[in-house]
Amino acid sequence: MYHPLSEAELLEFAALEDEIGHSLSAGLDWGNQIGEFFHQSYSYVDSTKLGEVLTEGLGNIFSDAEIQDLIESFQQEVARQVELKLESKRDIA
């Protein structure tokens, strides 16, 4: 199940970490591989909702197969952009 954290929740967790002087580190620690993980993961894109939006807006132009291709292309581009963003933040740190 995908449950994105809000900015407020992330700030709350960061404050808790600062308060205890330790990282909470729940789950896997991907370290330097986090960009690659996100590049290969589409978990942050709800393909069902995206398909519904594309079908509603473009279903009269594109076939179901073409819409599936659009979804795949979109997911790949989002993953690439997330990876680039993470890499740029890592380079700053």
Main features:
93 residues; mainly alpha
How would you concisely characterize the structure shown here?
The protein is built from four helices and no strands.
Description of the structure:
With 93 residues, the chain is mostly helical. It has helices spanning 7-20, 34-40, 47-58, 64-92. The longest helix is centred in the last third of the chain and has 29 residues, at 64-92. The radius of gyration is 17 Å and the shape is elongated.
Q: Topology, pairings included?
A:
Elements: H1 7-20, H2 34-40, H3 47-58, H4 64-92
User: So what's the oligomer here?
Assistant: single chain
Number of DSSP helical runs: 4
> How much is the radius of gyration in Å?
17 Å
Gross morphology: elongated
The major beta sheet can be summarized as: none
Please identify the structural class as seen in this structure. Answer: mainly alpha
Average pLDDT over all residues:
77
State the order of secondary-structure elements, H for helix, E for strand: HHHH
State the helical fraction. Answer: 55-70%
Number of strands: 0
Stretches where pLDDT falls below 50 for ≥5 residues?
none
Amount of beta strand: under 5%
